[in-house]
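Support reply, case 0932

Customer input (verbatim):
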Amino acid sequence: MLLWLVVAYLLVSIGIGLLAAAKVHNTRDYITAGRHLPMAVVLAMVFATWFGAETVLGISATFLEEGLLGLISDPFGAGICLMLFGLFFARPLYRMNMLTLGDFFRKRYNRGTELTLSLCIVISYLGWVAAQVTALGLVFNVLSQGNISSNEGMIIGAAVVLLYTLFGGMWSVAVTTFVQMIVIVLGLAYVAWIAGDMAGGFSAVIGRAAAEGKLDFFPALEAREILPWIAAFFTMALGSIPQQDVFQRVNSSRNERVAVWGTTLGGAIYILFAAVPMFLAYTAQIIDPEMVKQLMEKDSQMILPTLIMNHMSFATQVIFFGALLSVIMSTASGTLLAPSVTFSENVLKGSMPWMSDRQFLWCSRIMVVVFTILVTLYAVSTHSSIHKMVENAYRITLAGAFVPLTAGLFWKCANNLGATLSIGLGLGVWVLCELLVPEGDIEPQLYGLVASAVGMLGGSLLGAKQLPKQSTPFETKNEPLGTLGMSEPGIKA
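Our regenerated output:
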C-alpha cells in the first residue's frame, strides 16, 4: 500500500511537470522560464535543489559518525556558497542576460576558455546527480521490501525525473519544485516532531548530542585537523559558485531583487533546515541504538528509512517517504537540466552556430536524455556514499573555474592569458596532486586553487591589457539574446 501511494505521488509530480511544459515555446522558456519567476518560487528552487538526497540520507549518517565537525562542507559550505552567490555574483550576472555561465567565459575571455570550463562544469555534475539517482534506488528498494533492487530503483527513479524535465525544462522544474518544497518542509517537520517525542523530547535529544560531542563545530588546533576542515569548506563554498544550476535559478528570476534575495535567503534557510535530518538521525540513536550500530557498519544511509519503517505509523511513513522523494526529485530535475543545457549551448552550439532556436531546443532535450543515461550508469557502477559523491563533485570547478569567473567579474585586468594560465595551472596542479599526494595534509584541490590564482595574477599582469568586448557586468543592463544563440526571427529579448 505504501509503495502504491508513493507511485501515485510520482504520477502527480509527472502530471504537474507536463502541465507546466505547456509554457515552453522557445529556448528561453526552456532554460530560464522566460525570466518570469517570483520570489517564492526562486527561493523554493534554490532551497529544494540543494536540499537533496545527501542532506537527508548523507548528512544525517555523517552526523552520527563525525558530528558537526564532519559537515563543514555540506550543509555549511553549501549554504554559504548560495549566500555568497546571491550577495556578490547574482546581480552582475543577472544583468548580462545570458543562458549559461559558459556564455560569460566566451564573452569575457574566448572560445577556448568557454569550451574548457563548460566541460569542467558538466563533469562536476556527474557525482551530484548520481547521488540523487542512488538515493532513488535506495527508496524504491526499501518501499518494495527488496522486491525492487537498488539498481532497478535507480532506473525507475531516473526515468520519472527525466520525463517531466525533458519536456518542461525550467518551467517544469520551477512548478514541481515549489510543490515539493511544501511537502519537504511540512513532512520532515512533522516526522521530526514525532521522532522527538519518541526519543524523550527536543531538549533531551539536543542535550545528549551535545554531551557526546556531536555539536562540536571547530577542529582541534592542529594542522592535520584544520587543513582538511578548511579544504572541505572551500571545496563546497567556492567550488559550487561556478555552477550552472545556481546561475539558472538566478537567471530565471523576474528581476534583480528576486535574483539576489531569493538566492541569499534560500542559502540561509538551507543551513537552518538541514538541522532536521541531523535531529532525526540522533533520535534513531536513542530510539533503536542496536539498529543504528548494525547499519553504521553495513550502510549508514539506511538509518533514517529503517527507523521510519520499523518504528513509525503508516501515516508517518507515507509523509516521510513523500518528503524524501520530493527532496530527491527536486534536486535531480534541476541538476539534470543544468549540465545538459551547458553542453548544448557552449559545446554543440559553438560548433554549429547555424542551429535555429527550435533545433537548439530539441538538441537540449536530447542532451537531457543522454546525461540521464550517463549518470544512471555512473550511479549503478560506483560504490561511494551519497555524501562523498556530492563532496567530491566540486573539486574540478574549484581548481579550474572559480578564479576565472571571479576575476572576470571583479577585476578589469583579467585577460585571456591570465584565464589560460589559471585554468591550465589550476587543473594541472590539482590532477598532479591527486595522483601523487591524494592523502596529504592539504587537499589536492586547494593546491589547484592557489595555482589557479597565481596563473590568473601572473598572466593578467604580464600579458597585454585586454578590456572586455562588452562593458563590464556592472554597467551592462540587458544584452540582446541574439548574441547568445537566440536570434531566430520572432524571438525577442
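We compared this against your earlier run and they match. Two observations from our side: The CA atoms of residues 172 and 203 lie 41 Å apart. The domain at 2-394 is CATH 1.20.1730.10 (Sodium/glucose cotransporter). Please reopen the case if you see a mismatch on your end.
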